[in-house]
Structure prediction request, 349 residues.
Amino acid sequence: MEYYKSEDLIISPLVLSDCKALSDGFAAQGWDKPESQYQRYLEEQEQGARKVFVARYKGEVAGYVTLRSPHTGPFARKGWPEISDFNVLEKFQRRGIGSRLMACAEEEAAKTSRTVCLGVGLHNGYGSAQRMYVKRGYVFDGSGVWYQDKPLAQYAPCENDDDLVLYLTKYLPEKIVRPLTEDELTPELFHDFCRFQPVEKAWRKIEGEWQIKDVCYTDRWSNDKPKRTAELLRDLLAQGGGAWGAFLDGKLKGFCSVKGALMGSRGQCADLDKIYVSADCQGQGLGRQLFQEAAGFGRALGAEKLYISAHSAVSSMAFYRAMGCVEAEEYDPLHVEDEPSDAQLEFAL
Prediction:
């Protein structure tokens, strides 16, 4: 079982060999994380009392987070899943691994609850986690500071150690990815979709070599773009293509489409026509789910590959590479003519 997989990163449940690897990894940076702790986590995982998400970066154990029912704190009897014991080894930090671990835990939590909770320490060792939680939409629950699993009374003495915590919660919207129909493809469908992408750096192929270049522009929709997009998607469906929408609490926050006719010199490629995620919902796994729907449709068409004329912004290219896309062996001249700054990619089906 895998919660997440990209070219370099795999997130999957805890296995026995991880227990020593995690303990040794944290010991190397001066942390006391005994192997017995992870063996206990493994037992709880097998009993269904805890889910453990272990990140492996290029084959090495890089970090983990766990999800359980809270036993202490202000959420003990609310039935909300609690994210607990979240750590990434120092040598693997600043690679997006922590954000991906959190996304996996939140996605699992959303299967049983619309709210997820957690506690965070107050000393500066938790500084990175504090910033991440706020950026991910967590809010303080209002119960004040807790110390040693009890609310800390006003002016009460305490120590700024790992037992001094604040508690936070995050609302998890209902997420549905499903096919779009011709009847619903109207401008109003895109009312809550925000196409806004500031670009400062992009990939360019210069004399046969890919290079990152400084660029400066903002990609955003004009006022008539929802109407034109709806029309194009209706035409695509009428011609045998497929389109899917990602909805959060019933609002469209992402979509993708694949043309019905195969392309390439041997008819070997399905054309990934569009894939977008609303600017306010990126990093929540919607793009990955949409891409997987597109890949499934391409297989059903009998294609060997998905063909993508991809936005060349560094962030966009990072997504495609994480999905396993590579430079296309055979460029489509119409796509190149239409968007000469795009990167021509393919994904093996």
Summary: The helical segments are 16-27, 35-47, 97-109, 127-135, 225-238, 286-301, 314-323, 333-338. The CA atoms of residues 62 and 212 lie 28 Å apart. The radius of gyration is 23 Å. The chain has a mean pLDDT of 95.
